[in-house]
Specification:
Blueprint lengths: L2 H14 L10 H7 L1 E8 L5 E7 L2 H9 L1
Antiparallel strand pairs: 1-2
């Protein structure tokens, strides 16, 4: 794993999900926090940004494409 991946996993697992090392991320935990997916966006400068998305946001997005 590279350092950027470690930074991403630390952000997601420790800061966002508030998990301790060795603790599993579960759907129950995600439901309590109110999100179940992330979105990655590329801005006009070519920089990428990642953010959490509310529960069912991906399902709603996917349904719009159908």
């Amino acid at each position: 794993m590279t350092n950027p991946n470690k930074a991403l996993s630390d952000w997601l697992l420790r800061k966002v999900l508030q998990l301790q090392e060795g603790q599993l991320a579960t759907m129950e935990k995600l439901d309590k926090l109110g999100f179940d997916s992330v979105i990655i966006l590329k801005d006009e400068n070519g920089d990428f940004k990642i953010d959490i998305m509310k529960t069912n946001a991906y399902i709603e997005f996917n349904n719009m494409l159908s």
